[in-house]
Specification:
The complex is a heterodimer of chains A (370) and B (223).
Chain A lengths: L5 E9 L4 E9 L3 E5 L6 H9 L7 E5 L2 E4 L15 E4 L11 H11 L9 H7 L15 H13 L5 E5 L7 H12 L1 H5 L3 E5 L2 H7 L2 E6 L2 E7 H5 L5 H4 L5 E12 L4 E6 L2 E6 L8 E7 L3 E4 L11 E11 L5 E8 L2 E8 H6 L7 E6 L13
Parallel strand pairs in A: 3-8, 3-9, 6-7, 7-8
Antiparallel strand pairs in A: 1-2, 1-4, 4-5, 9-10, 11-12, 11-14, 12-13, 15-19, 16-17, 16-19, 17-18
Chain B lengths: L4 H30 L5 H13 L2 H12 L4 H10 L7 H27 L2 H8 L4 H12 L1 H16 L3 H6 L10 H10 L3 H28 L6
Helix pairs in contact in B: 1-5, 1-8, 2-5, 5-8, 6-7, 8-11, 10-11
Classes of the chains: A alpha+beta (370), B mainly alpha (223).
């Protein structure tokens, strides 16, 4: 694989409810989340990239090689020649083949592609050895998606496209497959475009993100920066809005079942985490879980208090709320408070505040091998 | 002892018709299952015509077409040196037209049941459309092919009106079971008619039971 291939696309499509008008160039590296609410056009973008929308009036090029161009040239590289791995929302395993048959289907047809990972390695890294002889109906939802993931990898893809591969799974199955997806770029040297409407999944998996809303790109950039933007409220969802923070495991306290995490010198405590000392963990803090105070609170049940400075406040005129961005050592926090509190506490940009965090989630899973 | 000639001839006719129709009917059914062409209803109607037309009407037009006086019939004579009317070849062509819906409709239903998803999956896994057809569509349509073939075979065996019109009653050439039965009844030879009729009845029944049993057992869940 060449160093960071560039994917360019530009299209204007009439969807059922609105126009999908999108232009983007991206250096493919790591996991890029294509984020938006259902019906924002994410899946269509993925389908065009894969070559499943031949009639689309679209321009797509991969590393300078045109895959699809609009009329009059009308270049169209069919999906089977694009070397793109696609994982659908439902696993879509072939019912007439067992697990091994499904995997062989992909492997056989990629036999002459020189780059990519061989059969044994893919099976090993995805722990599929015990499932090979099974019939596909006998698999659990999580196992089915793992087989679908392996099958896509066995095509030796230059790019992996994943369309909400976990939306049909319950939380336990999700937690089961999430680590495999997180490790795709390192384990298989393949960039991933990951479609999702879950902020949790973005926070846990992605390095960069593109935010789609009603068929338009409203933001793109590193996940931490994009999630901290207050102006994206409607697109990222107010209820789920929040930030991600990078932390290291500093200490475990088995007696109280707590783990102390270090965020650039500031410590927080969370329920015991199954990770080694020093391990890097990505945290997610929702705006609705942050309380602001102008004085250092003591005698509080929350153990997670940050001192910081308000960077920005956006008052939402039609609602009781104000979105607040607070600069803390090692990152930023978002707090969703009432406009009334903001006025009473005389909060404004530049003010010193204490941010009390009621709850921290470990971005979807217990450990994170980053 | 019943005469074996008509029985053998009937089986050969049905087998040849079924095999040839598999080649003609499969692409037609595939096209019908996937086309967005505005001619689709037209083609579907033509395909279904033999279901509703009296066999004598179909036979009449085929007879006219096969006649050496028609352009098609005379072309055939110049190309092959023999006429189509009252020949085994003519009977095969007539049977193919007569049984076409029995091949096409089960296949079309089966192809439609597969849907686009498995085809898209196969494409993203590196399979060309032709490859996909052989390695995904056919294995997923086993039941459809089985049903279509058996129905075509059985329907061809039971054909009477069309044969009477274009085939006549030439032993070893066009004298199939149904014609033989008709002839026995005409000549009041009921014993022979009984043997052939009972044979045909039992055969048809056994075949249908086998199809339904197989259909139940087939491990494929299409769709």
């Amino acid at each position: 694989m060449s160093d960071k291939p560039v994917l360019s696309f530009k299209f204007r499509l009439q969807l059922a409810e609105y126009k999908l008008a999108l232009a983007h160039d991206m250096a493919l590296a790591g996991i890029t989340a294509l984020f938006g609410h259902s019906g924002s056009g994410k899946t269509t973008v993925l389908r065009v990239l894969a070559g499943l929308e031949e009639e689309a009036d679209a321009y797509v090029s991969y590393d300078g090689e045109p895959w699809q161009t609009p009329a009059p040239e009308s270049v169209f590289v069919p999906p089977h020649a694009r070397a793109v791995g696609y994982v659908f929302q439902e696993a879509r395993l072939f019912p007439h083949l067992d697990v091994k048959g499904n995997l062989d289907f992909a492997a056989k047809r990629a036999a002459d592609r020189t780059t990519g990972t061989d059969f044994e390695t893919v099976i090993g890294r995805l722990d599929l050895e015990p499932l090979l002889e099974r019939r596909t109906e006998a698999l659990s939802g999580g196992e089915r998606q793992r087989v679908a993931l392996a099958r896509a990898l066995l095509t030796k893809p230059r790019l992996m496209l994943m369309d909400e591969p976990m939306s049909a799974l319950d939380p336990r199955r999700k937690a089961e497959i999430l680590p495999y997806i997180a490790k795709l770029p390192q384990d298989f040297q393949v960039p991933v475009i990951y479609v999702t409407h879950s902020v949790d999944e973005v926070a846990y998996l992605a390095d960069t993100m593109i935010v789609l809303s009603k068929g338009r790109k409203v933001a793109d950039g590193p996940v931490a920066d994009t999630l901290a933007r207050l102006d994206l409220g409607p697109a990222t969802g107010r209820f789920e809005a929040g930030v991600v923070l990078d932390a290291k495991v500093a200490a475990h306290d088995p007696e109280y079942r707590l783990t102390t995490l270090d965020i650039s010198g500031q410590t927080v405590q969370v329920p015991l985490v199954d990770a080694e000392l020093g391990a890097a963990i990505r945290l997610r803090v929702r705006a609705r879980d942050v309380i602001l105070s102008t004085q250092r609170p003591d005698a509080m049940s929350s153990r997670n208090i940050f001192q910081g400075q308000i960077v920005e406040i956006i008052e939402e005129a039609e609602t009781p709320f104000a979105e607040t961005l607070v600069e803390i050592p090692g990152g930023r926090l978002r707090a969703r408070i009432t406009r009334r509190s903001a006025a009473d506490l005389k909060l404004k940009a530049g003010a010193e505040v204490f941010a009390i965090v009621k709850s921290i989630s470990l971005a979807g899973a217990t450990t994170l091998a980053r | 002892m019943p005469e074996l000639g008509p029985v053998l001839l009937t089986l050969v006719l049905a087998a040849v018709t079924t095999v040839l129709l598999l080649f003609v009917g499969t692409p037609l059914a595939w096209w019908l299952a996937h086309t967005k062409s505005r001619f689709k209803p037209l083609v579907e109607a033509v395909t279904a015509l033999p279901l509703v037309l009296p066999p004598t009407v179909l036979g009449f037009y085929l007879l006219v077409l096969f006649s050496p006086n028609s352009s098609f019939g005379s072309l055939w004579v110049t190309m092959t040196g023999s006429t189509l009317a009252f020949s085994f070849t003519g009977l095969v062509i007539a049977s193919m037209i007569y049984s076409l819906p029995f091949m096409v409709q089960p296949l079309q239903t089966s192809f439609e049941a597969i849907g686009r998803e498995p085809l898209e999956v196969a494409a993203t896994l590196g399979a060309t459309p032709r490859d996909t057809f052989y390695s995904v569509v056919i294995p997923m349509s086993v039941r459809g092919f089985l049903t279509a073939s058996v129905l075509t075979f059985a329907h061809t065996i039971g054909e009477f009106g069309v044969v009477l019109m274009v085939g006549g009653n030439i032993p070893g050439q066009t004298k199939v079971i149904s014609i033989a039965i008709y002839e026995h009844v005409e000549t009041l030879n009921y014993a022979e008619a009984h043997v052939l009729s009972a044979g045909l009845l039992v055969f048809s029944f056994v075949v249908l039971v086998a199809v339904y049993a197989l259909n139940r057992k087939a491990p494929l869940n299409v769709g």
